[in-house]
Amino acid sequence: MTGQAQLEAFHGLLTAMLSTDNEQRAAAEKQYEEIPQDQKPGLLFQIYRLPGVAEEHRSLALVLLRRLLSNNWEDIVPTWGNDNLSQFCNELIAAAQTETSENVRKKLTDLIAEVARNRIDDNTGAQTWSEIAQFIQHCGSSNSTPLKQMALSVIEDVPNVFGNETSASVPGLKMLFEKCLQDANASVRSSALKAYVSFIIECDEDDKTIKSLGTLAPVIIKVCEHVVATEEEDDTPLQCLADLATSLPKVLQPHLSAVINLCSQTIRNTEKDESYRHSAMEVITSLCENAANMVKKRAANHIPEILTCCLLMMTELDDDISDWLAVDDVDAEDIDDEETVAVGESSLDRIACALNGKIIVPIFIQLATQLLNDADWKKRHAGLMGLSTIGEGCQRTMEPTIVEIVKSITPFLNDAHPRVRYAACNALGQMSSDFAPTLQKRCHESVVPALVHTLEATNLPRVAAHAGAALVNFSEDCPKHIISAYLAPLMGALERVLEATYQKLLSEGKKLILEQIITTIASVADASQELFVTFYDRLIGPLKFILRECPENFKILRGKTIECISLIGLAVGKEKFSPDASDVMHALGPSMEGLTPDDPQCSYFISSWTRICKVLGPDFAQYLPMVMPPIIRAAQYSPDVAVLDDDELPGEEDPNWSFHPVGEKKHFGIRTSGLEEKATACEMIVCYARELGSTFVPYVEEISKLMVDHLKFFFHEGVRSSAAETFPYLLACVKPQGGVTAMRLLWVDYWKALKEAIKSEVETEVTSEFINAVAECVEQLGPEGLTEEELKEIGVMMKEEMEAFESRRLEREEAEDDEDADPEEAREELNEEAEIESGILARISDLCHAGFKTIGAQFFHVIDPLMPLFFPLIDVRRTYTDRQWGICILDDLVEYAPEFAYRYQQQIAQLLLSSLSDEFPEVRQAAAYGFGAMALNKRPEWAAVAAQALDGLSSMINRGDARSTEESAVATENAISAVVKIIRNCCPGMDVSNYLSSFVHWLPVTEDHEESVHVYGFLADLIEGQNPSIIGENFSNGPKILNILVKAIHHDVFEMKDDAQMVKSRVAGIIKRISADQSFFLACVGNSNLDDAEKETLKNILASA
Question: Whole-angstrom Cα distance, residue 114 to residue 157?
Fold first, then answer.
């Protein structure tokens, strides 16, 4: 074929590639891929330059050529030789100056940028295409708008286009930017702003360049002001301003007020196009997130306005609520035309998290109060949604006043407008999660009855369903003794609504409330556990009926029903549930055949099988042939992946794909459908291995190989975490029959893979799970299952992770070294970030615990080299999580290896004693536990140290905030237990009457169930021994003692261990002995301050055998 004929044939091929006929286009694309790579560049460039070729063909040729060079530069260009490369580059520049088509010129500019990017030498950083700088200068100084835009586009796409001459180019570029930012043409101004932001962000570490170009900030703001005022261009300038606020907010520092004023005025102008208003809000939010200290210090007076803007956007709801009311899907998003509301809410959430509660809450409560009292329903809605939105970021500040906040919300459950009622449900539900369990303990009397009442108003399905959803959130972290008080009326309401809404499904096909009610029943069952057995027989029949008779197209309803049944089974236990479990599993049999990961029922079924497995234990093994095939299919799922250029991205967002930028104009895509099901399946495998023990052995070999591979499945963190979590249970599966030999067959390969996975893992949460898996494997393997070399490797791994942790800590502190930072707030922010990182320390502490518990005191030799890394954790300048976990490691050292710990006794004693007064309860708790451990090890050298801590422990218990939060209460109760242990074991001949007199006033202990056996066992000793410091003169402390003992049983503080149950029996016996003197007993009850529920508990104690 001649050159001309080949070119014509190639032109025809490109024509076919643009065909609307899918088959013709696919065939042409296949033919194009078969053309030798070295021939494509010449053919594509010739098509572009060929006279008479249609614009769309020329554009396609340039797109394909850029893509080809982007992906294959190193393979193609070196074969050209320098002369041909120079000629090609010169022709590009020449063509750029003569191209008349705007669309083709854009594609040509992209190609020039791609060539310029690739001609930067990787070793020297030099730009080897010297003419590109001249081209940019020529185009930038031209009077031609298209040429100026080309120069600016190249800088935007390749901000390092000047290579190692970037610094030298700054003066000239500054002149170019300044000129073009003030150009008469709006599109040139926008292009200049995009290029400026791209370039200055590229130079973010060059202070001189940033200082020089930063002087153009006022001009940038004027460009944004002009585009907002005139709407000549789209919102691109504001998007660029947001990018600058994200990456280099210090450039905007001198002009902070001007930027915030511009944005707030834009947001307040409700006649303005949404895109400008949304981008303006993004600018403000980005400033708050990335320069919080700067905003708090230099723009504090603007914070009320910022919050007002968020709330204003949240009021922009549709007056017509007919579509909103018609929604019949629990998981439905709010209607599409309320995007502005979503932007306002999301921004408020991000701003609250960034600026923290001390700044936000006082201002916001005032704004919200005004809105809640407004006659406009939209403002009341915004106020309620706002209160629920700021909870995550302002949790510590809001929690002490949660009772007052909840009381201000509950009346709106009876608001005249349905959407306001919905917002009140939303607020109570979200706060139940954000402030758990404090809200449940302090606000249950106002929350539960109000939500139940709203739930039964089924004439407004969306509101009723959302009340049910709020009850789910409330139940999840609700103490059993609280949920039990409402169980009868709550379940009565749920049963009535279940019956009514199932009939509505049959008659009208409406499922919204029914789906939610089934989920709510499941959540209440999960919270109430064995107490739910009272309602089991009334509910299991209707639920099984729904499962059997539910129409095939209601797959989500079917999935939620099996989820509910499995949670109820888990609550009531094997004896009650076992017969129905068999019915359920056989009823599901036909659905399991061919169940695919993308079936909406799949994740529900898999999770439910797991719960049923937990209930039945080894008896579930009979169903493994039925359930394992779909689970293994889901766990083996391998997602489709793709690397696409900008111009290949789908025009509309595909919910089945997720794309992430990776380098210049490239995006990594992964097909996400099936991923969550894969992760769920892996979680379920963990459960089966844990619950089934040796009956799971037939699957161990296949699962172990799969999970070793999944340790590096970088597409999903949950899959990697489950892969690690599975192995300790696989060891337990083979242990009964094969012992150490069988375990080591699995362990050797797993440990080799896990060591590598830990080194390469980038997510700290996953690394934490990996370390936890090592700890659990150590416990399974025992001292005989681990070699000396493996123990050394575990020590090395811990050391490397501690060093990496320290490196990240120093980076965080350096990043927080901000002149605008308030020292106290900076420390609080560091603490919040450290909470995320603390998982690593927690798991290292767990590994130390497992090592000592399994190996014994000799494990000290593994961690002794790490002590120089552990002690600095407890420095008062470190974050509270560092101090907390550092002390926990010392606690284990004292508890399990006191003879070796003795060499560090002075350091340990000083650190723990000073930590008893730490402002953070988590640290105080760890220190108190340590002194209790000293007392229990009964070694004389530690007994004296423990006894010296009694005054410090007493002061800790008597703090004004000793029980102000859940964490404080647990810490205080740990200290009470420590005092008990010390008095019992370390104080022979010592006068402890003062401590005993205080002891009865420190009680009851209701939060820390693990310590209750020590505290109440000691109390029983003292009462039974008629200790005058406890019982008082003539048993004057009788009412107080009765209150303490009844509360202990009412709050179910005694674990199901033999020693705890023995103490519980003693407590009940003392109560019965008090009741023997009827008149004295009645007087005690009358003065005991027991509430009605506690009096009912007392009645049950006295009635028991």
Answer: 8
